[in-house]
Design brief:
This protein is α/β, with parallel strands linked by helices and about 450 residues long. The chain has helices spanning about 5-10, 50-60, 75-85, 95-100, 115-125, 145-155, 170-180, 215-220, 230-235, 245-260, 355-365, 390-405, 415-430; strands spanning about 20-25, 40-45, 65-70, 90-95, 105-110, 130-135, 160, 185-195, 270-275, 290-295, 300-305, 315-320, 325-330, 330-335, 380-385, 435-440, 445. Strand 12 and strand 13 (about 325-330) form a beta hairpin.
């Protein structure tokens, strides 16, 4: 695995092609080569072995000293495939409580549907396990306080899985904003657009899907009890009973990145609109959503997700300040410094020539022409992560460091609740068809 950690990035960020404004990041010595003593080994279990869960685990086990020993999932085929991926000795079960009862497990990855996040996280922490829980941390607002209280009472480590808060690219954007590179922030614009069936959550249903191979009652959990439905089992993001729509899947990533970079606790109010414009296949969540948010820090956030955008997938954030912009796109961050004019300018051409002269004489007394000293400031600089860089790896690396050291994680339950709570305001605003209020300090709907 090729990885570059945050500290190495910040040291390397000053390496630039002379005069070009392009900062090529030097490749650092890789963490994966380090040795870990047997006493520092961490044994993990996966709860929810779908695409996200298997992807998370593939990243997690590349961190030195981490081993997967157990997997829980409600579909037999994923349990069998887990053994194909990680060895026949991996313990598998449909019931995650059997995983939590094992004394040889130090931490769990929770990658279940959203409506299981709270219960699985609470049960895991009460069983003495540290937790990496996929975003969004909550499905309902009532989930947040219970997860936070359990983390505090059990003293367990919990990291929420929005990996951008561990990204070296986002760390550079945070540094640039804090340095005043773009003046006073006034607007953040973020989007995540897709244009494919898979991108719109039409995940493949296996040919053997049935009540025999799928533990449908366990999957439903607290959701309404309905007859077995293979689409809802394997494409659960399309239904609000199990998922949180585009807000919980994608908006929450954009909130996490924005809050990390700006040091904000979250918005104070929100309004959203959207609808089901194209994917009218029985789902009951929008495929297009646009939302606006107010922040006490003096900036606004606009978000957009469009699953029918007519082009390729695109994701990005643009931070606009009084003196420039910072843009994140993929594994790069670009700062465009545009210093404000030191004089306001004038529009006198429609005046008489005499009045123009009088006005310009007074104007130049107040704003004398300044002759710049030295070369002009660099306008655009771009910082690019090395090829193959993975913020997901770094996020797990940070998590396991905290598991070993018991030091705080980069994305704890309060951060996760504030990001998810802000994102789900979009759904609430659409449902109520009005502006909704949120208290980011108290983490409560106002």
């Amino acid at each position: 695995m090729t990885s570059l950690n945050r500290r190495s990035f910040l040291k390397a960020a000053g390496v630039a092609a002379a005069g070009s404004g392009l900062h090529m990041l030097a490749q650092a010595p890789q963490q994966a080569g380090q040795t870990v003593s047997p006493n520092d080994h961490i044994q993990i279990a996966l709860i929810g072995a779908g695409g996200q869960g298997q992807g998370d685990t593939k990243n997690a086990v590349q961190v030195p000293g981490v081993k997967l020993v157990a997997v829980a999932d409600c579909y037999d085929g994923r349990l069998a495939h887990s053994k194909e991926l990680w060895g026949s000795d991996v313990f598998t079960t449909r019931d995650y409580r059997e995983v939590l009862a094992r004394k040889d497990i130090d931490a769990v990855i929770i990658a279940t549907p959203d409506h299981w996040h709270k219960q699985a996280a609470v049960d895991s922490m009460k069983a003495g396990k540290d937790v990496y829980c996929e975003k969004p941390m909550i499905h309902l607002y009532s989930d947040g306080p219970e997860i936070i209280a359990t983390a505090n009472s059990t003293k367990r480590i919990i990291q929420i899985g929005s990996q951008r808060v561990s990204s070296i690219v986002y760390a550079k954007a945070k540094e640039l904003l804090a340095s005043g590179a773009i003046g006073k922030l006034n607007m953040v614009s973020a989007h995540w657009d897709r244009n494919s069936a898979i991108g719109a959550w039409d995940y493949t249903v296996p040919l053997d899907a049935s009540p025999e191979t799928c533990d449908w009652p366990r999957f439903l959990g607290t959701a309404p009890k309905i007859p077995f439905n293979a689409e809802q089992f394997f494409q659960w993001r399309k239904w609000k009973a199990y998922g949180s729509g585009v807000a919980g899947d994608l908006f929450v990533h954009l909130f996490s990145g924005t809050h990390f970079i700006t040091n904000s606790l979250g918005p104070t109010r929100a309004m959203a609109t959207g609808g089901l414009r194209f994917w009218k296949d029985g789902r009951n969540v929008p495929d297009v959503m646009v939302a606006l948010f107010d922040y006490e820090e003096g900036f606004n956030l606009s978000l957009r997700v469009n699953f029918v955008n007519g082009g390729s997938e695109s994701e990005g954030l643009l931070f606009t300040g009084s003196e420039g912009t910072i843009e994140i796109a993929g594994n790069s961050v670009t700062v465009n410094r545009v210093p404000r004019e030191k004089e306001p300018g004038y529009t006198v051409s429609t005046f008489t020539e005499a009045m123009q002269k009088r006005y310009l004489d007074q104007y130049r007394e107040k704003y004398p022409i300044e002759h710049p000293v030295g070369p002009p400031p660099v306008g655009v600089e771009r910082y690019v992560a090395p090829k193959g860089y993975s913020d997901s790896y770094d996020h797990f690396h940070n998590f396991f460091n905290s598991v070993r050291s018991r030091k705080p994680v980069v994305e704890d339950a309060e951060f996760g609740f504030r990001a998810a709570g802000a994102a789900l305001l979009s759904n609430l605003s659409m449902e109520k068809e009005k502006i909704v209020q949120w208290n980011p300090q108290a983490m409560k709907l106002a």
